Amino acid sequence: MADIELMQHTLKRRAQLMADVRRFFAKRSVMEVDTPMLSSAAATATYLDSFVTQCHAGETVHRRYLHTSAEFAMKRLLATGSGPIYQICHVFRDGEHGRLHSPEFTMLEWYRPGFTLSMLMHELNQLLQQLGDFAPCVYFSYAQLFSNYLQIDCHHADEAELRLLALNTIPALPASWQSDRDGWLELLMTQCIEPQLAQLSTPVIIYDFPASQAQLARCVKDANGNKVAARFELYAGGLELANGYDELTDAIELRQRFVEDNRVRQSLGKAIMPMDEHLLMAQSQGLPQCSGVALGLDRLLMVLLDIKEIAAVQSIGFSDA
After folding, report:
1. Quick one: which of 15, 38, 142, 201 is 20 to 30 A from 306 by CA?
2. Residue 238: how many CB atoms within 10 A of its CB?
3. Average confidence (pLDDT) over 169-194
4. In this structure, which long-range contacts are made by residues 150-159, counting pairs with CB atoms below 8 Å and at least 24 apart in sequence?
5. How far apart are CA 129 and CA 134, in angstroms?
6. Which of 133, 194, 126, 186 is nearest to 162 (CA)?
7. How far apart are CA 204 and CA 235, in angstroms?
8. Which has the closest alpha carbon to 235: 153, 98, 101, 134?
9. What is the pLDDT of residues 91-105, one digit of tens each?
């Protein structure tokens, strides 16, 4: 297919994808919302870096951040009683650029008050099957994958064991490599387990992450009594596509996590991010129990069209903007 024909085909398939998403949620009475991309607060997560800009209002200069996700604003709407909501929007993450990453990309995010994490995983499974020719998802706990592929108990292995395993199983890893326990787990997941998942012919949902990787999810006990994060990730075609939570609703604990994130950011030489006081106030007044998930639509389109570069499925890629 000629380049111009491929571009037109991709544009049309992208438009169809958006229409199919909206049709899926309309049938389920999930309301589409639209929230600001600029905010006075920013994500504190240590793995995210926000774009910052200035807005002028007369003599006053306001510092604003482009959102890395619509999550905070959408949770404020949930706290006002919006009911189930979804949003398709552009999000922005500084420092992310490459074959699978773009500083600006399109995300679908939705929240379901009253849904358990299992119910949300099932709905995501249904969505995938309606958007493309996907087989039903298969499910693995985080611990199952480490046991199956690396023969190690990820919940009880200490940092030294994980470091030794990484050095013995990742040939290119230098002996001087330094990380913490979660860093070693992440390295083993991305370098040793994810390539195995890419060989499967079905999408994969991974659940029950270590509690130390809870991010904004609740922590619970798994069937074996291990403290785990009530969150999941979706993989398809060798790509991570989605991240879902049984959402943390405790405003006090959320503030503590924001503070700890900023402490770690400072130790890494990263900027301290302003906490979203509007979100904390909304949660203190009553965020309903809910589950939510964010799905990268550009990466999903890559899988649907068997395209290897994220820029090739965007209407205009970052380098050409």
Report:
1. 142
2. 15
3. 93
4. 150/188, 150/192, 150/193, 154/185, 154/210, 155/210, 155/224, 155/226, 155/228, 159/184
5. 5
6. 186
7. 5
8. 134
9. 999 988 889 999 999
